[in-house]
Amino acid sequence: MDNVLLARMLFGSSLIFHIIFATLGVGLTLMILIAEILRVVRKDNDYGILAKRWTKAVAILLGVAIPSGTIVAVMLALLWPGLIEVVGQVIALPFTLEIFAFFFEALFLSIYVYAASRLSSTMRIISVFFVALGATASAVLITNVQSWMNTPTGFSIVNGDITDVRPWEAVLNPAFGYTAIHVASSAYTATAFVVASYAAYQLLKPNLKQSEKTYHRKGLMMALIFGAITSLWTATNGHHSAVGLHNNVPVKLAAAEGLFETQSNAPLSIFGTPDPEANRVVGGIEVPGMLSYLATGSLDGVVVGLNEYPRDEWPPLFVHTLFNIMVGIGSALIALSFGALAYRIFFKKREYPNWVLIPLVASGPLAMLGIETGWIFACIGRQPWTIYGIQRTAEAATKSANLGTFFIIFISLYGFLLVVTALVMRYYFRRNPLIKEFESQTTTV
Amino acid sequence: MEANVAIVVIWLFLFLYALGGAIDFGAGFWSMFYFGRKDTTAASIANLYLNPSWKVTNVFLVLFVVALVGFFPHAAFALGSFMIVPVSFVLILLIIRSAFMVYSYSVQKYTKLFTYISGITGLLIPALMLSILPIIIGGFVEIVGGNHYILYDRLLSSPTLYAHIGFGLAAELFLSSLFLSDYAREAKAMETYEVYRKNAIILGPIMLSMAVAATMTLMPEAMWMVENMARQWHLFALSLVVFSIGYSALWWPSKKGRVGQPRVAVLFMVAQIGLASFAYGWAHMPYIVYPDLTIYEAVTNKQMYLSLLWGYAIGMAILVPLFYWFWRLFLKDKRYLTDKKVDDVR
């Protein structure tokens, strides 16, 4: 198999694996912070137990999140030396700063977990605040390089050499703002629904004690409110991202929407297959003028189509489907969280019936799928470029052999670790049931 | 000038990770070695250290990698082409080690199995990392059509590879024993202090002789390196003196009851590793990969160099007080060190 494709498969599968753990790490630490604050404000120890159990989940996840993050960092250098050669000259700064965000996260997490009994409530909240800050900051800083790869700025090229480097201009590249916000808010959203999904699953069980029901309901409500806010926020900044694509990387938007001809009054195609022969999306639903309206703010706005670009600069056309899955899941999550909250407000019932809980159970895996398709769209939608308009993926890749063997080893390892991690989670939380927490916590607060 | 400053920063990060990593992986090994022993708390002392620190130690590895490619981006192609095999194996061991170390605390039923998996994989990591040194010194890399390839048959049949691996193992076990002996004494676990002190006494001379063996076996492969090292003889001699003083401190009388001053020994050994690794690094100059890649060819541009330097300086200035607080909480605070019931959230 072709070496570039193998390098992409190896790196892509590592990212797909790592992003699960990274997303939950970013989202859960913020939810722990909120739970710790609620615990103090409401003087309700159930929130303390929520924080404690989520912290345990984070600790288990970190066993894989940290080394898989290390794998991604090292592989980026090994598999994409061409990219790194340019990155090291132009956009090395966010990687540097990100290290310090990691240090913050690691140091304060250990302090929060292992020194908790020696800290005051305020110091605990401050510690977990810095954990959450470090987690989100590292995600934002990594995304900074990713956004720069889409809209490279801050340097000039003279005779193939990079000169006149302006590091801060590279950091503040046009795509940075909306990309970083979208990454952070979507990570919060996905985590909220993973938490909601777990709580809903527990509430479906018969024979729960009243104290357990109350506890899981608090977890569910917190996740739903947090999820409703963040999912709506994600939709808003997702819209800004699409406008950003229209302004900065129009070919990516064209591929995402399956738009071939540059036109005003461009339709929004939902699902279907982009057909380059027919010059349109076949088998989808078309909303006339909607794409122009979304991208430019007016039905008459002109949206650039794929035909403006040579064929060898087109991203693979299946990114249209990835994009649709991402947007579809995002919309479903908004509907689900607002629907569930509305049910609670209008019917004034504390308990959800099963027909509400069952879709909520599905929301967690669905949200993760949304994250994955979003990231895959972001990376494959940039193809054939690693650095848009500057460097092709084939130029960036290592020429080293053996990649096929390592792809098989790593992907087996990832599959194995996913299974083991799930089993460890299940084992731990069965061995340490909620009932035990209620018993041991009555004396401590 | 820029290249020289940058390579010193890289050396500093590598030195920090070498120490931290050796103690971290070594402690994981000892936690396995003394697993289930009723007569000593050596395993729990090792875990007491590992629990809060392993994540922080891991960040130093990422720091080193990121700084290396940040300061020396033009080294990426050469390093990327032949490092992929040894480094991928390190990464595979690393993820198994970290995952199973964390899981061993969560799944009581399989604690023993998981501790063995993480202990053994962790033990091999520094050994494998050290095997990269002879590869980049030369003699084992062939360039065909602009690509670098490792000559595996030559490498695997060369004594210097095994001497380097042996040195990696000995250094890891010696430094972790020495550090844990001090840590155990801080925790007032005097029996455990004796256990680790004895380990350090045995392993110290082994580490030293493995270092000599690694250098000697390098002669047929990379005479240039050995000659350069000989030119740094005064630094190596000084490091030997520092080693001897530190080693002897294990017998110095102490007011705390038991013989030996492990804190002094640790500080001198840190200085010794610093001196020896600096001398080694100096002898390595100006090559990143001998003979075709020097630091001057690989270094980044002036603007990026300056902004990176500022970035590291400001970041470190913020972190140093935080590291101090961390040290106070987990390496000094008696409430942590002597708390038999370690919090079950870990």
Can you describe what's shown?
The complex is a heterodimer of chains A (445) and B (346). Chain A is mainly alpha-helical and 445 residues long. Chain A has 15 helices and ten strands. The longest helix of chain A has 40 residues. The termini of chain A are far apart. The relative contact order of chain A is 0.12. The model of chain A has no long low-confidence stretch (mean pLDDT 89). Chain B has 346 residues and is mostly helical. Chain B has one domain. The longest helix of chain B is centred in the first third of the chain and has 32 residues. Chain B starts with a helix and ends in a 9-residue tail after the last helix. Classes of the chains: A mainly alpha (445), B mainly alpha (346). At the A-B interface, helix 2, helix 3, helix 4 and helix 14 of A face helix 2, helix 3 and helix 13 of B. Chain B: Belongs to the cytochrome ubiquinol oxidase subunit 2 family. Chain B: It comes from Cytobacillus gottheilii. Chain B: This is Cytochrome d ubiquinol oxidase subunit II.
Write the SSE topology:
The complex is a heterodimer of chains A (445) and B (346).
Chain A lengths: L2 H40 L2 H35 L1 H10 L2 H22 L6 H30 L5 E3 L2 E3 L3 H5 L4 H28 L6 H39 L1 H8 L5 E2 L3 E3 L2 E3 L4 E3 L2 E3 L2 H7 L5 E2 L15 H29 L6 H27 L4 E3 L3 E2 H4 L6 H29 L2 H8 L4
Antiparallel strand pairs in A: 1-2, 3-8, 4-7, 5-6, 9-10
Helix pairs in contact in A: 1-2, 1-5, 1-7, 1-12, 1-14, 2-14, 4-5, 5-7, 7-8, 7-12, 8-9, 8-11, 11-12
Chain B lengths: L1 H32 L8 H30 L4 H31 L4 H20 L1 H6 L3 E4 L2 E4 L1 H5 L2 H28 L3 H27 L6 H9 L1 H16 L13 H23 L2 E3 L3 E2 H4 L3 H31 L1 H4 L9
Antiparallel strand pairs in B: 1-2, 3-4
Helix pairs in contact in B: 1-2, 1-4, 1-7, 2-13, 3-4, 4-7, 7-8, 7-11, 9-11, 10-11
InterPro entries (chain B): Cyt-d_oxidase_su2 (IPR003317)
Family (chain B): Belongs to the cytochrome ubiquinol oxidase subunit 2 family.
Protein name (chain B): Cytochrome d ubiquinol oxidase subunit II
